[in-house]
Amino acid sequence: MRQKDIIVTTLVGWVPLSLGKSLRRLSYRAILSQIGSSVQIQPGVELWHAGGIEVGDKVKLARGVSLRNNGPKSRICLGNGVKLEVGVIIKIHFNGDIDIGNRTYIGPYTCLSGNTIKIGNDCRIASHVGIYANNHNFANSKGTIRGQGNSYKGIVIEDDCWLGSGVKVIDGVTVGRGSVIGAGAVVTKDIPPYSIAVGVPAKVISRRDSIADPT
After folding, report:
1. How far apart are CA 88 and CA 109, in angstroms?
2. Are 84 and 111 in contact (CB under 8 A)?
3. Which domains are seen in the chain, by residue range?
4. Which of 1, 78, 155, 173 measures 20 to 30 Å from 113, CA to CA?
C-alpha cells in the first residue's frame, strides 16, 4: 500500500495550479480511506499509509503538509473545514488515532506527534506549536534513552481553544473547552475550561468568563 501511495503522489503531487488540485482530488480517492467534497490539496503534500487517512469536506492542505500514518491499524481523521498550513506535520508512531475536529485551523510548521491526539471543533492552533503525545523512558541510567522506548498517554484539546505561537503541549494533558494558551507557554498539566494560561510551565491567570465583553 505504501508503494501505491508513492506512485500516486509522485505522478500528481507536484502538478501546479488548478489542474493539479483537480487531479489530486480525483487521484487521491484511490488511496485515501475517505475524501470529501471541495477538498484543496496543494503540491508537495506527503501521505504515508493513506488508507488510514480520512479527509472531510472543504479541507485545505497547504504545500509541505505531511500526514504520516505509521501503524497498520492507525487512523488520521481531518474533519470538515479543517485547514493545515505550510509545513504542518501530523505523525502517528504506531497504532493510534489522531482526530482534528471540524473547522479547526493549524498554523505553519506545527507538529502533532504520538499515538492518541484529539483536537476539538473550531480550534485555532498558531504557528510552531508542538503537541507531543509521547515521552521517552529514561529510568535506567545504565542503558541508552533510545533503547528504553516511549510511553504514550494521549492529549485532548477540547472545542474552541486557541493556542498561541510556539506553545508546547506535553503528553497526558487535557486543555479544557474554550481555553486560551498564551504564546510560548508549556502546558504540563490539565487546563480547566475557559481558562487563560501563560508561562513555563503554563499557569492559569484568568478566566474568559470573568472578562468584560467590550460589546
Report:
1. 5
2. no
3. 2-210 (2.160.10.10)
4. 1
Where on the phi/psi map is residue 209: left (φ > 0), alpha (ψ -120 to 50), or beta?
alpha
Q: Active site residue: 49, 93, 128, 136, which one? A: 136
Each residue's pLDDT, cut to its tens digit, for the chain (215 residues) gives: 566 676 677 666 666 667 777 777 778 887 888 999 999 888 888 888 888 999 999 999 999 999 999 877 899 999 999 999 999 999 998 889 999 999 999 999 999 999 999 999 999 999 999 999 998 888 888 889 989 888 889 999 999 999 999 999 999 999 999 999 999 999 999 999 999 999 999 999 999 887 766 66
Is residue 84 within 8 Å of 63, Cβ to Cβ?
Answer: no
Distance CA 63, CA 85 (A): 8
Contact in structure between 75 and 52 (CB atoms under 8 Å): yes
